[in-house]
Amino acid sequence: MAEQLREWFDSLLPRERWLVSIAGLLLVASLVWLLLIQPVFSQKARAEQRISDQQLILLELGQLAARAGQAGAPAAAAGEQSLVVLIDRSARARGLSAYLRRNQPDGPGTIRLRLENVPFDPLVEWLAELQADHGLGAVSVTVDPAVEPGRVNSNIVLSLAGG
After folding, report:
1. Is 135 exposed, middle or buried (0-12, 13-18, 19+ CB in 10 A)?
2. 3-state DSSP of the chain
3. How many Å apart are CA 149 and CA 140, to the nearest integer?
4. Is the dihedral of CA 117, 122, 128, 129 positive or negative?
5. Do the beta carbons of residue 77 and residue 134 sit within 8 Å?
6. pLDDT tens-digit series, residues 75-86
7. CB of 91 within 8 A of CB of 126?
8. Which of 62, 109, 113, 128 allows an S-S link to 160, with CB 3.0 to 4.6 Å?
9. 41 or 163, which is more confident
């Protein structure tokens, strides 16, 4: 087949050979463009569009987070109920109410807690939840080891942020 093609090409006039060569080069260049270069550019454009879409989503999420922060949701939630009730409900929801020995207000927006023989990790998670969900930050925390490993006795003073 290749030999027949070569014979046909050699039988052409020089001007025809030149035109067939140019047409062949254009065909090869078109194939390179269509099969190699154009898909790369298309993929790049799609990737840039995805990045742009994700940046827009990130910006919108940031705006929503800022609005939620400005709404004062934690302070409002804590202000709707007394801190004693809030602590009691939250401790019960976390399974820590059995360890709560004292839950007493200590001025406006402040509360004192005493927990005995409480598992340490759930206690820390609960305190983080109180901070994140209700704006209650620890003013003071004392922790002493209990008899059982991984358990502690703790005195905690919590206060509303800005309180």
Report:
1. buried
2. CHHHHHHHHHHCCHHHHHHHHHHHHHHHHHHHHHHHHHHHHHHHHHHHHHHHHHHHHHHHHHHHHHHHHHCCHHHHHHHHCCHHHHHHHHHHHHCCHHHEEEEEECCCCEEEEEEEEEEHHHHHHHHHHHHHHHCEEEEEEEEEECCCCCEEEEEEEEEECCC
3. 23
4. negative
5. yes
6. 444 444 688 889
7. yes
8. 109
9. 41
Question: The sheet that has 110-119: what strands, in order across it?
Answer: 100-105, 110-119, 151-160, 136-145
CB neighbour class for 22 (10 Å; exposed up to 12, middle 13-18, buried from 19): exposed
Tokens of 137: 């930050």
Token readout for 4 is: 């027949």
Q: At what angle do helices 73-80 and 120-134 cross, to 10 degrees?
A: 100
What the block records as the tokens of 98 is 């059995």
Q: Which amino acid is at 52?
A: S
